[in-house]
User: Fold this.
Amino acid sequence: MKTKILYIEDEPYLGKIVKETLQNQGFDVEWRTDGAAVLGAFASFSPDICVLDIMLPNVDGYTLCEQIRKKHPALPIIFLTAKTETANLVKGFEAGGTDYIRKPFSMEELIVRIHNQLRFLEGVKSDMSSQPEEVVLGKYTLCRRRYELQSPAKIIKLSQRDMEVLSLLVAHRNQNLDRKQLLISVWGDDSFFNSRTLDVYIRKLRNYFSEDPSIEIVTLKGKGYLFLVP
Assistant:
């Protein structure tokens, strides 16, 4: 069965090239040009991955990503953007993106990143199938298959990348988790770019666990992280 890609890009020339190239590589591609019409595509086209431009008419990519993430917490979302500032990178990951490619980009890079995202997703599914469905973490309950972190006050929907990072922390709770090991396990390498991305996710997870002061994610300088759970 072909991998289904939902591709959102309003620039017609680029969109046509990317769509045709991906189709020639064996992907099933649904191309949309208007962000406001994207959510409707999910009714007839159930994508395995989303490739999303940030600068779109009617609704920006960040907002669209947040809307998609609420309904499809495990869907990999790759951002395409000409914006290169760190603030934009952080905003994209906080909105729920799982990867980020700067324009202009090569099709080879995009295809490699698509395959990496799908491989990581399969790895997470495999890990979850071999571990308990629910894990109690202090006042929280991690529901793996639903990609949810439940607290007494709310339910937090986790993205694919949230779950990957948190799953490693949970597997190594109350012991040192090497930063390089975490980066290679989740992103495939420990480059500076991925290292900055990891910082975003650690900050997000600390925020998620803020209701329980007995839970901490401690940074061990030069070593990694210690996920302290009572």
Remarks:
- The first strand starts at residue 4 and ends at 8.
- The CA atoms of residues 7 and 183 lie 27 Å apart.
- The chain has a mean pLDDT of 85.
- Residues 107-129 form the longest helix (23 residues).
